[in-house]
Amino acid sequence: MREWFVLGALGLAGLGALALQQQAAEVVVQTSEHQGYGQYLTDAQGRSLYLFTNDSKNTSNCYDQCAQNWPPLLVKDKPVAGKGVAASLLGTTQRRNDTLQATYNGWPLYYFARDQKAGDTNGQGVGGVWFLVSPYGVAIKPPQPSPAATPATPEPMVAAAQNPELMRAGEAAFKANCAMCHGEQGRGNPALAENRKLQDADFVIRQVLRGSRYMPAFGDRLSDREIAAIITFIRNSWGNNYGTVTEGMVKTRR
């Protein structure tokens, strides 16, 4: 316990100085890459940023001792979007002492006092309520095992060229929901261009519906048709030619 407070005090000293610098200068939020967690939010110095699942939208519930262990990312104005970050998701929320805290997708952002240097992720998963933040603005959590399902009856693959409307819809939905990480030309991280894994329609549908450690689930935010359109688009763009995924295929795999 004593070691915790010593380490916390050391971390807080560094973070306190950093907070003063931030209030005097422009604050940049960007992404870094972790071998286990994929892309996650950091400040301009590469220090990890976290969200607290007990917070409410645009409202911090972390004060007093909590805020000593999890110092808020304080700003004077709206933070600036760095590499891999969507400017539209950045914002601020006012704390009880009238300071401004940076938010991303409505989540107030924090440091962890035991992170001593850039790249440290010691706060990930603490208490089951503190998590690194993905570029989509959601908590990065370990993937949950999916319930066993009855194998769906395969549907015949239809050439995407016969579905130009679906391809156009898929391109628009991809740019709105996926291009931030995968890149508009499919060469982001992870790359989709010339990706043989896209041959497996079941695998791709499951990934989009349920998510994984590296990406959020879209099953609760996109319709069957929107998901079918996105998957059809990525399976038939940038050197891929793997046929159409139908709305029915998505529906039976939910």
TrEMBL record:
One biological process term from GO is:
alkane catabolic process
Q: What is this protein called?
A: Cytochrome c6
Which residue numbers delimit the Cytochrome c domain?
165-238
Please give the InterPro entries that the UniProt record associates with this protein. Answer: Cyt_c-like_dom (IPR009056), Cyt_c-like_dom_sf (IPR036909), Cyt_C_IC (IPR008168), Lipoprotein_repeat (IPR005297)
Annotated signal peptide: 1-24
Print the keywords alphabetically: Electron transport, Heme, Iron, Metal-binding, Signal, Transport
PANTHER family assigned? BLL4220 PROTEIN (PTHR39335)
Species whose genome carries this gene: Calidithermus roseus
What one GO molecular function would you report for this record? electron transfer activity
